Amino acid sequence: MRILLIEDDAATADYIAKGLREIGHLVAVARTGKDGMLLAAGESWDVIVTDRMLPGPDGLTILRALRASGIATPVLVLTALGEVERRVEGLDAGADDYLGKPFAFSELRARIAALARRPAASTDPVLLQVGDIEMDLLKRSVKRAGQPVELLPTELRLLEYMMRRPGQVLTKTMLLEGVWDLNFDPTTNLVEVHVSRLRRKLAREGSPAPIQTVRGVGYVLGQA
Hints:
Blueprint lengths: L1 E5 L3 H13 L3 E5 L2 H10 L4 E5 L7 H10 L6 E5 L4 H9 L4 E4 L4 H13 L9 E4 L2 E4 L4 E4 L2 E3 L3 H11 L6 E2 H9 L9 H13 L8 E4 L3 E4 L3
């Protein structure tokens, strides 16, 4: 497996790279955000592991640039900033996984293997459609009734999750785990806030709201 590691701390970078190479992976190491950005965008990788705090562009800036360029390589953010709010920021920027420092190498290895096992983009449909909503998975673009809809990365993931399950009632727990990779928290309004924003952006005068609330249960895209 070809792995790009973007980590400015020499001891941490050497430790991770040595461990991954010992189990047979090819590992390239970038010590700055600038070098990491160039390598991430200029070569093909199976998985990218990046620190969040880097000299030059930070990890989240690199993530956003990759996703904006249509590069879908799985990215794991490895950082000491492991609070829920920080994880959400990383996932919003386009991360596929998030692991806080300090960490066990065995967990890092397992998470990298899990990311690599995800189906390649070519095995997925290029276009999702539910009613008059279309999503181009390669361009990461959305249209409703032929008109473009500008969505943020998390809104795109939320809509994609729903479009892959049309007519299915999706609970708050399902959305937290499927979109944000978070455990259920009865005090958070994360789902409600993002569903509300997504509804507003998808709204079209004279057309029914595509996302319906099933009171006390969750949400459904299309007819339940």
